[in-house]
Recover the amino acids of this structure.
């Protein structure tokens, strides 16, 4: 192995916004047999927007669409999920709850309690307490009532029954490739807010290039339901789609795929960190200030998906020089 070839490869990559950490990355990358793409925020732009707000029939006397969005937004301010950002924007709320002491909402997986003195008086400002972020949404107490905002399954787990008309809204949202967010309050489902994002430009060319005529298996991994993945499943270069995989299980899925050969995982540095760390080669998409990418071997900075195939071509040419 010539250290000079490796150094040159790393420098060439760096010039293209591909930051490689570790001398062995280029050596291992050409052996990758499976490339796993996270869907939301990676193959799609993650720029979620609310596309529909549907109030449940038996809540419609007391709640209109704006009330529903407002309630969902007050809770979603405590999440950093792209869906949460869309709901908060649609509700016309500031991104940051008035309660956060340092100006940042609670991180996903974090927990906000109202136990702390100075904190809790500020928290009283927005009437939202006991916020718990889950893999699939949030639960909280809002103005004294327990509220759930998230995946229909989270609402069901929290003890809510989904009325038939709500189920229909959920199904039609999914059939369109959008994501239904159920809002329940005090034991009753109030309605559904639907969010959607668009696939990134030229995502299809990227997966085609990465598959290298089938030399590598391409896998799409998502927490969304199967129906939201139709356009990815139908693409000829996509070999498998794993849908309904909660964030905590993504690393396990990557680990299982490793039984078939070396795996590269492409995802975002924060939500997908465990899966990136589990993969043989973790490739994180980063932009601007969002460089929380310790788990990744390769960080793509402000380049977007188009740089992913370049990781493989650069590694290939560098590796040939090493040998
Ligand atoms: P992906 O794998 O597509 O990146 P995630 O694993 O981040 O998706 O989330 C899985 C699903 O959980 C989402 O599609 C959504 O239904 C639900 N979910 C997660 N966080 C939130 C939230 N803050 N608000 C509403 N729904 C959420
Ligand atoms: Mg994600």
């Amino acid at each position: 192995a010539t250290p000079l070839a490796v150094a040159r490869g790393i420098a060439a990559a760096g010039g293209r916004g591909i930051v490689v950490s570790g001398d062995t990355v280029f050596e291992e990358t050409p052996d990758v047999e499976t490339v796993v793409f996270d869907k939301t925020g990676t193959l799609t732009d993650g720029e979620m927007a609310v596309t529909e707000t549907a109030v449940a029939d038996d809540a419609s006397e007391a709640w209109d669409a704006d009330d529903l969005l407002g309630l969902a937004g007050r809770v979603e301010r405590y999440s950093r999920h792209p869906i949460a950002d869309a709901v908060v924007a649609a509700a016309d709320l500031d991104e940051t709850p008035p309660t956060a002491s340092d100006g940042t909402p609670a991180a996903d997986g974090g927990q906000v309690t109202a136990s702390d003195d100075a904190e809790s008086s500020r928290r009283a400002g927005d009437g939202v307490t006991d916020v718990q972020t889950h893999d699939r949404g949030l639960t909280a107490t809002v103005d004294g009532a327990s509220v759930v905002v998230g995946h229909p399954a989270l609402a069901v787990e929290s003890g809510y029954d989904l009325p038939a008309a709500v189920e229909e809204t959920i199904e039609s949202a999914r059939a369109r490739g959008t994501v239904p967010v159920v809002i329940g309050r005090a034991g009753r489902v109030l309605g559904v807010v639907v969010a959607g994002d668009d696939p990134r430009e030229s995502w299809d060319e990227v997966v085609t290039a990465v598959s290298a005529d089938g030399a590598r298996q391409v896998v799409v991994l998502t927490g969304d339901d199967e129906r939201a993945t139709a356009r990815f499943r139908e693409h000829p270069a996509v070999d498998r789609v794993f849908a309904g995989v909660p964030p905590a299980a993504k690393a396990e899925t990557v680990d299982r795929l490793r039984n078939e050969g070396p795996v590269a995982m492409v995802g975002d540095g924060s939500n997908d960190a465990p899966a990136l760390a589990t993969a043989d080669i973790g490739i994180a998409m980063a932009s601007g200030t969002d460089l929380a990418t310790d788990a990744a071997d390769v960080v793509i900075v402000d380049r977007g998906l188009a740089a992913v195939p370049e990781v493989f071509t650069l590694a290939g040419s560098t590796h040939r020089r090493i040998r």
User: Anything to note?
Assistant: The chain has two domains: 3-46+199-322, 49-196. Confidence is low (pLDDT under 50) at residues 100-124. Residues 38-40, 76, 79, 81, 83-84, 136-138, 149-151, 179, 181, 222-224, 247, 271 surround adenosine-5'-diphosphate (ligand 1) (CB under 6 Å). The first helix runs from residue 3 to 15.
